[in-house]
Amino acid sequence: MMQRQYDGESSQNYFYIHDCRGGSIRLIISESGEVVKSYSYSPFGETIEEGGSVDNAFMFTGQYYDEEINQYYLRARQYDPVLMRFASRDPKEGEYEKPLTLHPYLYCLNGPINHSDPTGRFYDTGYALAWGAEMWAADAAVGGLAMAYCAKMLMANNAIVEATNMIIGGMASGMNRLVDIGLSWYGNLTTAMSSRTWQKDPTVAPGEGWIWQGDPEAKVGSKKGNWVNEKTGEQIHRDRDHAEPKGPHDDYTDENGDEWDMYPDGRVVPKK
Amino acid sequence: MAEKVTLTFEENKLIEKIGKIYEHLDNDIKLQVMFGYAWGNDINNWKYCKYSKQDLFKQLEVAKMTGVGVIGKDDIWIKISDNIEIQFCHHGDIHVICAKWNEYADEIFDLLSN
C-alpha cells in the first residue's frame, strides 16, 4: 500500500509511504523518488535498521511508536518490541481451551508473522471483526490525525484542501486495516481449526456435538475411550498418565484426518 | 495402580510379543482382549472379547488389510489375570499395568521388554 503525506512545515513536499506485510512502514520516498527514510524490523517489531532523517512515528504494523519509552501505543496497552511483550496485563480474560490466550503479556499469541494486534487485546475473533468495522470509521479520523502528525500540523493556507486529502488517505488506511483484520481473523480461525488445544478437564466434552465412546466400565475421559464428533469426524483421546518421555498428552484427529499430539504446555504437534 | 512401559517397537515385533504372551501362559488359552483407541469404534465397540492367539492374529491381519488400524498405531488391551493388564499402545510401546506390582508383573515386563 502507498499513502501520500504532506510536509506542511515549509517546503510543501509530498512523501510516499510504502508499507509491507502487516502494514509495517518500510520506506518513505520523496516526490523525486528518493528514499528519505527506511526501516527494517524483527518479527516482533524491534527496529533493526533505520535510515534517513524525515520525522515519522508510525512504524511497525503502522502503529504509533513512542520513542521516549521505546514502546508502541496499541490502544488498550503499550507494547515493548524488544521484550516482545506487552507492558501491562491483557484486559481480556483468556480461554482455557486456548492456553496461549491465558498468558497476560504475550503479543499476538507469539505469532507476529501472521497476526497483528492493533487493539492490544486481540485473538477474540468476533471482537476482531467488530473492531475491523469500527476501525474503518475510526481510522478515517485517526489516519487523518496521523498524517497531520507526520506533517507536523498543517498550517499552510491550503489547509482545508490538504486536510481533506489526509482524511481520504486515512480512510484508505482504514480500509486497508479492515482487510488486514479480516485476514488476521481468518488466520486465527484456520489455526484454531487445525490445532485444537489442551483441555484441562478430560471428563468434559470438547464442545457441542461430541460424544464419549469407550469401555463402558472405564471412566469417561480415561484412555480406554475417546471423544468423537460424529458430525465432523474429529476424535480426541485423552492419554493423561502416559509415562515419559512421551508424557501426558491428548491424541487429536482433525476433520481432515490429520493427527496431532496436544500437550499440557499448549504445544500442538503434528504426528509423524 | 502401578505401571511400567517398554521402549517402542515396530509392528512385526509387537505381534511377536503378543505371541510370546500366549506362549508364556498357554498356547490354547483365550484372553480378554479389547481394541481401544482408535479402532475400538470399529472392532467390538470397545468391549472385551475372548480371543485365542490365532483369532487375534487373524483379526489384526483383517484390520490392517481393511484399513481399520494397525498394531502399534492403535491400542490393544489384553487382560492376562485379575491383577495384570497389558496395553499395546498406539505409540508402539507396551504398558504393563497392575493393581499391585509383584514378581509376576516383573516377569511379564521382562518378557515384553526383551
Protein described:
By secondary structure, chain A is α+β, with helices and mostly antiparallel strands. Chain A is 23% helix and 27% strand. Chain A contains two helices and 15 strands. Chain A has helices at 125-150, 159-194; strands spanning 2-7, 13-19, 25-30, 35-41, 47-52, 64-66, 71-74, 77-80, 85-86, 210-214, 225-229, 234-239, 249-253, 259-262, 268-270. In chain A, the strands form three sheets. Chain A has a six-stranded antiparallel beta sheet with strand order 10-11-12-13-14-15, with no helix packed on it. A five-stranded antiparallel beta sheet of chain A has the order 1-2-3-4-5. Chain A has a four-stranded antiparallel beta sheet with strand order 6-7-8-9, with no helix packed on it. In chain A, helix 1 runs antiparallel to helix 2 (159-194). Chain A is elongated, with a radius of gyration of 24 Å. A six-stranded antiparallel beta sheet of chain B has the order 1-6-5-4-2-3. Helix content of chain B is 34%, strand content 23%. Chain B has helices at residues 11-25, 53-65, 103-113; strands at 2-5, 31-35, 49-51, 76-79, 84-88, 94-98. The two termini of chain B are 23 Å apart. By secondary structure, chain B is α+β, with helices and mostly antiparallel strands. The model of chain B has no long low-confidence stretch (mean pLDDT 95). The longest helix of chain B has 15 residues, at 11-25. Chain B is built from three helices and six strands. The chains are: A alpha+beta (272), B alpha+beta (114). The A-B interface holds A 213-216, 223-226, 228, 235, 237, 239, 241-243, 246, 251, 253 and B 3-5, 34, 36-38, 40-41, 45-48, 75, 77, 89-91, 93, 95.
Index terms:
heterodimer, A: 272 residues, six-stranded antiparallel sheet, B: 114 residues, alpha+beta, 3 helices, 6 strands
Secondary-structure blueprint of this entry?
The complex is a heterodimer of chains A (272) and B (114).
Chain A: E1 2-7, E2 13-19, E3 25-30, E4 35-41, E5 47-52, E6 64-66, E7 71-74, E8 77-80, E9 85-86, H1 125-150, H2 159-194, E10 210-214, E11 225-229, E12 234-239, E13 249-253, E14 259-262, E15 268-270
Antiparallel strand pairs in A: 1-2, 2-3, 3-4, 4-5, 6-7, 7-8, 8-9, 10-11, 11-12, 12-13, 13-14, 14-15
Helix pairs in contact in A: 1-2
Chain B: E1 2-5, H1 11-25, E2 31-35, E3 49-51, H2 53-65, E4 76-79, E5 84-88, E6 94-98, H3 103-113
Antiparallel strand pairs in B: 1-6, 2-3, 2-4, 4-5, 5-6
